[in-house]
Amino acid sequence: PPKGKGPQGKRITLKMAKNSVRVLFNGRRRLELSKMGIAIFPKCLLELADVEEIDLSRNMLRKIPNIIEKFQNLVWLDLHSNQIDELPPEIGTLKNLTFLNLCNNKLTTKGLPDELTQLRNLRTLNLGLNCLETIPTTLGSLKELIELGLFDNSLTIIPKSVKKLPKIERMNVKRNPLPEFAKEEEPIDTVKRVESLYLVEKKDLCPICLQTCQGERSELHKLENMTPGPSDKPSFPLLTTPNSTARDNQEEWRMK
After folding, report:
1. In the chain, helix, strand, coil percent, each to 5?
2. pLDDT in tens, 199-220
């Protein structure tokens, strides 16, 4: 393919890839290829298949090839903000993976392979901002999951197996057409309505009822006699109303 950006995206050479490896404070090596205009997974990365982390976020990737299985040391894989519509079954071979970010892609339910559930060490999985209508109940087998992002999809149900993940601490399901978000709670009527009102004289009340009524009446009088506090509304006593000239010329100064 021609150098620079073209139909194939930016061409990444082995030298460029080697220069993009960073050693993190914890000793892991991260291949940082974010925002590089990459449209096709560079095969030269196979030369660096022993890295522990790969950042390919914010590119133009549509497919993740099956050669991803060569990266057996991967612990952390960030693919957010690409054009990915499906994952290869080989993703399930990355047994050491603890972090997988697939947010803001074009993944459909069909594009999630069953093998995804083989990532038994996964702690963070972000599937937010995709095109998912359902999620596999088998995701409930990811027993180490602590954080799961499902926001901004088309989900109408979250499987019980996923809701009951043993270690889950954060599950973001916002902006999905889930039934529990469809109906807002009806406002509670705090005013007690009475169908009938009965009037009695003091002499007909027992001492306890009379005491209760008098207590409530005195509370009501206290509220009536309270002076209202200063209003929070700003007051502009010196502001005059626009004169006729201002009104006639308002189109000249009114902000469009």
Report:
1. 30, 10, 60
2. 666 666 677 777 777 777 777 6
SS3 149: strand
**Does a structural domain hold residue 170?**
yes
Mean pLDDT of all residues in 73-101: 97
**pTM (predicted TM-score):** 0.69
Q: What are the tokens at 85?
A: 């519509």
Contact status, residue 157 vs residue 182, Cβ threshold 8 Å: no
Residues 159, 141 contacting (CB under 8 angstroms): no
Q: How confident is the model at residue 41 (pLDDT cuts 50, 70, 90)?
A: very high
**Cβ partners under 8 Å of residue 235, min gap 6:** none
Question: Residue 151's domain is classified under what CATH number?
Answer: 3.80.10.10
* Cβ atoms of 161 and 140 closer than 8 Å: yes
pLDDT surpasses 80 at 235: no
Residue 188, in any domain of the structure = no
CA pair distance 248, 44, nearest whole angstrom: 72
Which residue type does 88 have?
P
Q: Give the span between the Cα atoms of 105 and 115, in whole angstroms.
A: 19
Beta-carbon contacts of residue 215 (< 8 Å; ≥ 6 apart):
none
For 229-248, what is the mean pLDDT? 55
Is the CB of residue 174 less than 8 Å from the CB of residue 191? no
The range of the structural domain enclosing residue 152 comes to 36-181
